Amino acid sequence: MAKILVVDDAAFMRMMIKDTLNKLGYDDVEEAADGAIAVEKFQQLSPDLVMLDVTMPNLDGIGALKAIKQLNPSAKVVMCSAMGQEAMVVEAIKLGALDFIVKPFKPDRIAKTMKVVLG
């Protein structure tokens, strides 16, 4: 089963995403509270997928996406944010994000993304 890193500065949102992933059968889920911690954990854990919030302290999701892609250009990253602005989505996709989930999300949206990204 895939190892997933969930990155969001809101503990409640990390818990909701983790709970949804657990219900989908993904039980190897790690967490990070900001982009800087996410980059460190990415190096330590080599997750199969990173789910990144966009707006976070220390290092935002776009900065973390850039750093993760520098470390591993084939890293699978999905952005997850309430900021569903078109420019943000386009930038994330150009930088290598595979998908962009807009909050609030429904569990079936995460399930669909998992099938597409992880197979």
Question: What fraction of the residues are assigned to beta strands by DSSP?
Answer: 15-25%
Q: Number of DSSP strands? A: 5
CATH fold naming:
Rossmann fold
Low-confidence stretches are none
Helix count, DSSP H or I runs of 4 or more residues: 5
CA radius of gyration is 13 Å
Largest β sheet strand count, sense and barrel closure: 5 strands, parallel
**Structural class by secondary-structure content:** alpha/beta
Number of domain modules:
1
Average pLDDT rating = 93
Spatial strand arrangement across the major sheet: 2-1-3-4-5
Terminal CA distance reads: 11 Å
CATH superfamily: Response regulator
CATH architecture, please? 3-Layer(aba) Sandwich
Helix content: 40-55%
- In CATH, what is the class? Alpha Beta
What general form does the structure show?
Answer: globular
Topology order in helix (H) and strand (E) letters: EHEHEHEHEH
Explain what you see:
There is one protein chain. By secondary structure, the chain is of the alpha/beta class. It has one domain: Response regulator (Rossmann fold), CATH 3.40.50. The chain is 47% helix and 19% strand. The chain is built from 5 helices and 5 strands, in the order βαβαβαβαβα. The protein has a 5-stranded parallel β-sheet, sandwiched between helices. α3 links the parallel β3 and β4. α2 runs parallel beside α3. The longest helix is centred in the N-terminal third of the chain and has 13 residues, at 11-23.
Label this structure with key terms.
five-stranded parallel sheet, globular, 119 residues, alpha/beta, Rossmann fold
